[in-house]
Amino acid sequence: MSEPKTIGEILTNYFLNSQEPFAVAFRNHFTTSKQQVNQEENPCSSCPANVNSPLADRLEDWLDNQDVMQILHISPRTLQTLRSNGILPFSRIGNKIYYRRSDISRILNNHYTMVKIRCYGGNK
């Protein structure tokens, strides 16, 4: 039995190998973007562009519902409320929802409050 795949591996496989129109358009966008960058840096058009490396790095930054619920210690309903209220941005592919790690960090930083406990243990 093989080890379960990470979200990054699943998304990388989808975007690099799927023939669905969305995945094909995604690959074409990054292929043309990467070629434009390479042509600006190095005008040699015969040099091959390594498209897989930047895409794989970017996909590691995405989390699914289960990961976010475990990180934030919240219920599925609370996560849905965060999405519905526009507090937590998300992307949907089919019926699967993904979140950026940076958005999770931003929410934690923006909602951080320091509470000073007074009279702890009955001492005044």
Summarize the structure.
The chain is mainly alpha-helical and 124 residues long. The chain contains six helices and three strands.
Rounded to an integer in angstroms, the radius of gyration calculated over CA atoms is: 21 Å
Task: Tell the overall outline.
Answer: elongated
Outline the biggest β-sheet: 3 strands, antiparallel
Strand percentage? 5-15%
The helix count comes to 6
Element order: H for helix, E for strand: HHHEHHEEH
- How many E-type strands? 3
**Low-confidence regions:** 44-51
Tell me the number of structural domains: 2
The span between the termini is 60 Å
Percent of residues in helices comes to 40-55%
Task: Assign the structural class, choosing from mainly alpha, mainly beta, alpha/beta, alpha+beta, or little secondary structure.
Answer: mainly alpha
Mean pLDDT: 78
Lateral arrangement of strands in the main beta sheet: 1-3-2
Features:
mainly alpha, 2 domains, 3-stranded antiparallel beta sheet, 124 residues
Describe this structure in words.
The chain folds into two domains: 1-60, no CATH class; 62-124. The longest helix has 21 residues, at 21-41. It is 54% helix and 9% strand. The chain has six helices and three strands. The chain has a three-stranded antiparallel beta sheet with strand order 1-3-2. The protein is mostly helical and 124 residues long. This is Helix-turn-helix protein. InterPro entries: DNA-bd_dom_put_sf (IPR009061), HTH_17 (IPR041657). Residues 62-110 form the Helix-turn-helix domain.
